[in-house]
Design goal:
single chain, 2 domains, mainly alpha
């Protein structure tokens, strides 16, 4: 049962593909006819064509222009048949939750069938939707078309300009709101930072512990060498140890003392780093971070002005960054 059903599905897909290609050709021909006839109605172009090619002007006028409505109705009848056939297929394949959803989803197809100049332009949307459908089916690849690259490039330019204008206006509104507010910093402290104080303290303590622990694990040999060098230099500068070296066996005793002190100092550093993992150290770091956040959250008139100015200048910097027209680099217009 699966093989015949698969073969039938492939035949339907091929049939849909051929029908879509035929509709694309007809819509393109109809749009071309609409464009040519619209240009024919312009008095300068009409007069110029009549002067340059009177026989062609007479042939087009009698064969197409005077029968334009009849020709357009032929296209409309085919497009209407396509809509009805698509609606029937959608009902048969249960594509939508209700049978009457199809004309609302494909509203541009339905309105484009109305033979009035205001609705005929919607046939462009019909053509675009068909091209997208063929692209999805793999029948064409419009991304390789030069026309697609042209419109896609300038579409990005348009979207960037529009989004930049909206973002700049939004940031300017934020600056105005901050300047109008009398207690912005206080509300920021009370409603945003203060409720998250415990989480901030834990995060600061965790990051400090992780940073120190990781740095020591990666550089412990360098730390021990630095401690040994520091102990050696300190002992060499010690006058009492210099006198000890002059005594019999003093040099051996000085070296033994130096090794012992270096080992003790290295052990002290190692134990101090290990102590960072202790609950007592975490509590100490938490207290220090909490005190720092409390000091930071303290708000008076001066800190309120400073915070407001920092925020305003930050928003201004973002506006300057948004104002950069990056599309110029893509189009090599600099």
């Amino acid at each position: 049962m699966s093989a015949p059903s698969t073969a039938g599905s492939r035949r339907r897909e091929r049939l849909y593909l051929v029908w879509d290609i035929a509709i694309v050709v007809l819509v393109s021909a109809n749009l071309l006819l609409l464009l040519v006839d619209s240009l024919f109605l312009l008095p300068p172009l009409n007069a110029g064509l009549e002067a340059l090619a009177p026989s062609l002007h007479q042939a087009y006028d009698s064969a197409i222009h005077q029968r334009f409505m009849t020709i357009d109705l032929v296209f409309v009848s085919i497009f209407l048949l396509d809509v009805l056939a698509g609606w029937a297929v959608a009902i048969a394949e249960r594509r939508y939750a209700r049978w009457f959803f199809y004309p609302f989803v494909h509203w541009y197809d339905v309105l484009g069938c109305i033979p009035i100049s205001g609705f005929r332009i919607l046939r462009v949307l019909r053509l675009i939707s068909l091209l997208i459908r063929l692209q999805r089916l793999g029948a064409i690849d419009i991304r390789r078309w030069g026309l697609y690259a042209f419109f896609e490039r300038y579409y990005r330019v348009l979207m960037e300009e529009l989004s930049d204008r909206v973002a700049t206006r939004l940031l300017s509104s934020l600056q105005e709101e901050v300047q109008r507010s009398d207690d912005f910093t206080k509300r920021l402290s009370e409603k945003v930072i203060q409720p998250r104080k415990a989480a901030l303290v834990d995060e600061i303590a965790r990051r400090l512990e992780t940073t120190v622990d990781k740095s020591y694990a990666e550089n412990h040999q360098e730390v021990h060498r630095y401690v040994a060098t520091l102990v050696t230099r300190t002992l060499e500068e010690n006058q009492e140890l210099s006198r000890l070296r002059r005594l019999p066996m003093g040099e051996h005793m000085a070296h033994a003392m130096e090794r012992s002190l270096s080992d003790v100092a290295s052990r002290v550093v190692h134990e101090a780093i290990d102590g960072l993992r202790s609950p007592r150290f975490k509590s100490l770091i938490g207290d220090l971070a909490g005190s720092g956040i409390d000091a930071w959250l303290y708000v008076d008139q001066r800190t309120d002005r400073v915070t407001e100015q920092v925020l305003i200048e930050t928003l201004e910097m973002l506006k300057d960054e948004i104002a950069v027209q990056r599309w110029r680099d893509e189009l090599d217009l600099r």
